[in-house]
Design brief:
With 85 residues, the chain is of the alpha+beta class. The protein has two helices and four strands. The protein has a domain of 50 residues. It is 24% helix and 11% strand. A hairpin with a 6-residue loop joins strand 2 and strand 3. It binds zinc ion (ZN).
């Protein structure tokens, strides 16, 4: 009986050792979007240094100082404010 119990322990132990994590899907699939920043309303934008402002071509009151940011409404890429005039 001891041998059977030992064998069962080994078998279950082997089962638990199947590389944890390899079959797990990534917690966040869209990693680029998770780290992306989004626009704020133009009236809320803090821009004391008068940096170039980027805005959504569809929602022109959605602005950001980050050229990599996206519109918080439609997720579109932003365009420089000067070019959109
Ligand atoms: Zn937009």
């Amino acid at each position: 009986m001891l041998i059977v119990a030992a064998a069962l322990l080994v078998l279950s132990g082997c089962g638990q050792k199947t590389q944890p994590g390899t079959s797990q899907p990534p917690a966040i699939v869209s990693g680029s979007e998770a780290s992306a920043s989004y626009t704020v309303a133009a009236s809320e934008l803090k821009n004391p240094e008068n940096k170039p402002v980027y805005l959504c071509p569809m929602h022109r009151d959605q602005v950001s100082l980050n050229p990599e940011a996206r519109c918080s409404i439609c997720r579109m890429r932003l365009v420089p404010q000067e070019e959109s005039k």
